[in-house]
Amino acid sequence: MIKPSQLINALCAPAFFFSVAQAYAEDTYSPYAAKPLPRVLWGDTHLHTGMSPDAGAFGARLMPEDAYRFARGDVVVATTGQPARLSRPLDFLVVSDHSDLMGFFPRLHAGDPAMLADPTGRRWYEMTREGGQQAVAAAIEVVLSLTTNSVPEALNTGPGSQAFADAWKITTDAADAFYQPGQFTSFIGYEWTSTESGDNRHRVVMYRDGALKARQVDPMTSLKPLGSPDERALWRWMRRYESETGGDVLAIGHNGNLSNGQMFPTINPWTGQPLEQAYLSERARWEPVYEVTQIKGDGETHPLLSPDDEFADYETWDRGNLDLSAPKTPDMLPFEYARSGLQIGLQLERTEGINPYKFGMIGATDSHTGLATAAEDNFFGKHSGIEPSARRLETPMARVSETAVVEGWQMVASGLAGVWAEENTREAIFDAIERKETYATTGPRIIVQLFASWHFPDEAVYTPNLMRLGYQYGVPMGGDLKDPPEGATPEFLIAAQKDPLSGNLDRIQIVKGWIDQAGDRQERVFNVVWSDPSLRRPDDTGHLPRLPSTVDVATATHSNLYGAASLSTHWRDPDFDPELPAVYYARVLEVETPRWVAYDAARFGVDIPEASPAVTQERAYTSPVWYTPPSR
Q1: How far apart are CA 611 and CA 613, in angstroms?
Q2: DSSP per-residue string spanning 387-422
Q3: Rounded to whole angstroms, how far apart are CA atoms 59 and 556?
Q4: Cβ neighbours of residue 610 under 8 Å, at least 6 residues apart?
Q5: CA–CA separation, 427 vs 417, rounded Å?
Q6: What is the end-to-end Cα distance of the chain in Å, rounded?
Q7: What's the distance, CA 277 to chain centroid?
Q8: How far apart are CA 144 and CA 595, in angstroms?
């Protein structure tokens, strides 16, 4: 119970009066008339439709216009004939079909004579018409043809061809048709699908522009001879596009857990030499954010990289590269996870003067159904061959060979991008992503604010308008702390609110990475605020006990008996050394809730495979804040 004296102290705190005084310091009575404060907009930056060759082979029949209708909240009939709808509309969507072979399967499904004249085209046509696992097998063949650059010449319609132009027109026209500024933003985009030797180096290319500019230059592809799997070629294409059109594009690195160490390299994979200055600067220029979680696994960190982090082993995919042609080895791991990638960026800045891995965080689905579903209780799967059914828990998601099988239950219902933007338009959302004022969630719509400063007012966390105070005194997620005053230490204001349709909040953590005097990577996870303080407290090492689980797997239900609806704190780094570069981000954890397999089992009356987890602990990852010593 709050005592009267506590209430009076809170109301009289400087931060409280700051909020009111600041409101009336504007030129107009309304403090929001001149420039609105940012608000969280929810979206998916990585979605495939039947225009993608693998999605089409898996059976997807939904097209870009269907994807936009679903994202804005309409009921859409999935490829398998099931009606589908989001619990709440998204604010924006990037349809990012693969640029290689874009529009291939709509033509094949229509029986294009030129494609059926090719033996491979005829076989894929017959396999997809049969459906089921034959369609899945066709999709795997398509993926392997891309990873080995062996698509038959007769089927490889790329940039410059009429078929490619027609497919790109369908894509861009749909984005423009569904764009409703202020209500729903449909972005033009594509996925550049570099998969040399089976290693996933994919990037989603996102446009700030409309169709008029986007169609002036054909998208970049990865298949030779018209395309290239080298990311430097993609960056050159991006520079050429902006130069020729006056437009604006950015690239988003695909979750790197299937790259086999190729996502955050220190050695140029194309030359075998240390990264050159041009590589470092171009990567920093064109790739402002990174996809840290999606349907093919979570990419924040790995338990072998973060052995002291009890939450590190979350939806881990670590068997090999994309087509499982090469197994994973421990030495690859630092170069494909976000936390270690951020630390490698600090090392490179120290030795080379440029940090190429200074990225913000976002989540996305990478769904190939045309349906952007990331909720555990409304999950339509990776592809149309494994949409909801009584059989999908026992059906492989992909079977590359008899020993290289990805089980259906391994799919992850993840993720979403939260973007702090002033309005729901292409320009405002794109600009927010470019400045890294973004965060990722594994599906729930948790609202997270993070600001950093050298000094916040003592009562800052109690202000009713934390955002205004955060911007006045500090920098938001994605920003830099510079020029520390003598004796100052980084301070953080962090606040989170639960998704009303999901679990309560368990805790907020600050993940710190830094480079020590020897140049080695270091990390530490701090529990900075938590729910149920009467039930638990950190021990001398900082470890905070877990909350009891309330999940009933049999009924796919949980209780919010534990946890909190909101958490906030004002935290100072107790170990700060102004001589050492550092990076900080927040991780917000929910209480345990049922995983999607539990919902499937309860709805269809089937058993959960023994190897499958049935409980999850959803989370959010903010974009970092960086500190660089003045001498750097």
Answers
A1: 7
A2: SSSTTGGGSEEEESSSS-EEEGGG-----EEEEEES
A3: 29
A4: none
A5: 16
A6: 49
A7: 27
A8: 31
Residue 203, burial from CB neighbour count under 10 angstroms (0-12, 13-18, 19+): buried
Confidence of residue 26 (pLDDT cuts 50, 70, 90): low
- This prediction has a pTM of 0.93
At residue 343, the 3 state secondary structure works out as helix
CA gap 512, 584 in Å, rounded: 5
DSSP 125-171: HHHHHH-HHHHHHHHHHHHHHHHTT---TTT---TTSHHHHHHHHHH
Using a 10 angstrom Cβ sphere, with 0-12 exposed, 13-18 middle and 19 or more buried, the burial of residue 253 is buried
Cα separations (Å) of 125 from 56, 120, 374, 387, 480?
A: 11, 8, 31, 21, 53
Q: Is 297 left (phi over 0), alpha (psi -120 to 50) or beta?
A: left
Structural tokens at position 290: 């990174």
Q: State the Cα–Cα distance between residues 486 and 294, nearest whole angstrom.
A: 42
Give the C-alpha separation, 420 to 289, whole Å: 14
Q: Give the tokens for residue 20.
A: 């009111």
Note the pLDDT tens digit of each residue in 350-372: 999 999 999 999 999 999 999 99
* Rama region for 422: left / alpha / beta (φ>0; ψ in -120 to 50; rest): alpha
For residues 581 and 127, give the distance between their C-alpha atoms in angstroms, rounded to a whole number. Answer: 55
Q: Which of 205, 217, 192 is nearest to 249 (CA)?
A: 205
Least confident of 264-268, 286-290, 403-407: 403-407
- A 10 A CB-CB count for 218 gives 19
**If you search the block for the tokens 């309560």, which residue do you land on?**
504
Q: Which residue has the tokens 């996809």?
A: 291
> What gap in Å lies between CA 498 and CA 589, rounded to an integer?
10
Residue 619 Cα to chain centre, angstroms? 12
Question: For 372-401, what is each residue's pLDDT tens digit?
Answer: 999 999 999 999 999 999 999 999 998 888
Task: Answer whether residue 52 shows pLDDT above 60.
Answer: yes
Look at residue 4 and tell me whether its pLDDT is greater than 50: no
Q: How far is CA 117 from CA 123, 165, 516, in A?
A: 10, 22, 62
Residue among 314, 262, 337 nearest 513 (CA): 337
- Output the CA–CA distances (angstroms, integers) from residue 25 to 33, 422, 423, 469, 473, in the order listed: 12, 20, 23, 13, 16
DSSP 15-74: HHHHHHHHHTTSSSSSTTSSSPPPEEEEEEEEE--TTSHHHHHHT----HHHHHHHHTT-
Tell me if 494 sits within 8 A of 508, measured CB to CB.
yes
Of 106, 111, 74, which Cα lies nearest the Cα of 90? Answer: 74
Q: How many C-beta neighbours within 10 Å does residue 180 have?
A: 12
pLDDT (tens digit per residue) in 155-198: 878 899 888 999 999 999 999 999 999 999 999 999 999 999 89
Alpha helices in 410-552 (DSSP H): 426-434, 466-473
In angstroms, rounded to a whole number, what is the distance separating the alpha carbons of residues 591 and 615? 10
